[in-house]
Amino acid sequence: MNNGKKIGAGLLSAALALSVFGCGNNKNNETNPVSSAASSGAEATKAPETSSSKSEKVKITYSMWGSAEEGKTVQATADKFNASQDKIEVEVVAIPWESYMTKLNTQATGGQLPDTGMLKEDGVIQWSTDGMLNDVSAMYEGSDSKPLDSLAYKYQGKTVAYAAANEILLLYYNKDMFDKAGVPYPPAALDKAWTWDDFVAAAKKLTLDKNGKHPDEDGFNAEGIVQYGASVENLPWQLETWALSNGGGYYSADGAEVRVGEDASIEAIQKVADLYLKDHVAPLSVGQTDDGIQRTIIAGTVAMATNGQWNVGTSLNVAKEEGLNYGIAVLPYMKDKVTLGTGGANVVFSQTKHPAEAMEWLKWYNSEENNWGLISSGIWMPTLEKWYTDETLTRKWVENPNFPPYDEYKSAVVDYARSSAARPASWFYTNHTTEFNTLLGSILGDVWTGKTTAKDAISKNLDALKAAHSGNQ
């Protein structure tokens, strides 16, 4: 099947959104500013100053990662903002993803950062620590368009960025495979969520070897599997879902302490590995690439797989048009029902001379009516609570051909995102997640292949993980 991205009418940039969510979280690009020069004399995150009034428009720059063509697409949107008022003119600067953070670091060193722009999720708190971001706590004062509190990136109690969209992790599944196997669909309602044991049992019924046998049947050939029942995305940041669900986690609630070495966290990670190693219901995944839905549901090799909501718009739209009959459900759970929430950050850099104007642009750009193509395509989820609680607005959002059936999506996404199960990804509140996740991913490599256990791998490297979390790696 074609794994390309559907570019719908009014879609600002599908490739832009792709990189915003799950954006390079498995890459090793540098996220920390070159602080010795960039933040020389800078205190922690700065509060904005009011720009002086001028008769001509104040010109500000907005950086994004993407090609020059993608930059033109976003500039066309900025031009609408420029034409809507007579005070601010926004120039969009597109930088290739591969060199984006390196370029920003160089600009920071030279005091030449843009006024505002995109920043990798796992770099927000670090840049705040180095005094490179403005405090945007007051950005929505007097406005009824403030995003959900769960979308605020916070440093020392101050909001330093808001996510541009509200994203959660889901369970996707192939309805035709379930129908053929006579297995009930996974539930879209949180109160009916499958337990982990339910999930594994269903996965066994959906896993077939070349002779049509299941893993729990005599004669099953684990080396000749032609259809897998399940795949759980094991990118390090998504893997935390299961540690939390099992009563553990990577960090304490305030982000100060490392908890990945606790038995509950280790047990959860091992259960994910055992889907491949012992249960024989999942393909081998080494947690290095964020293309899980393409490799599983869209490829037609796996009956159900976990990943982010953004896949509805970035890849599944095209597959749906080509005949894929897929559904969505809430995640199974171990002890507690958990899904992780995330969203790429738009920030105001502290080097700007025009923080008020930069915030005015971001407020406009982040509003649903101005990025509707990204929302209606299924890539972004709205950031305002009213889209989740006002049925008229919810239907405007969800009742379109790009989405699964309304009732299914309403329950598995809209309600799920506002439920007690939704927890913020750790980069919203703690530092050095880049270093921690990179090291954890490396440590777990031999766990996925069965060369070692999660307990041995994490226990032997726990001090290194703690050092990574403290920035002393």
UniProtKB/TrEMBL annotation:
Coiled coil: none
Bias (Polar residues): 27-39
InterPro entries: Bact_solute-bd_prot1, SBP
Signal peptide start and end residues: 1-22
Protein keywords: Signal, Sugar transport, Transport
Pfam families the UniProt entry points to: SBP_bac_8
UniProt keyword Transport present: yes
Sequence segments annotated as region (Disordered): 27-53
Database matches in PANTHER family: ARABINOSE-BINDING PROTEIN-RELATED (PTHR43649), DIACETYLCHITOBIOSE BINDING PROTEIN DASA (PTHR43649:SF12)
Record's protein name: Multiple sugar transport system substrate-binding protein
Taxonomic placement: Bacteria, Bacillati, Bacillota, Bacilli, Bacillales
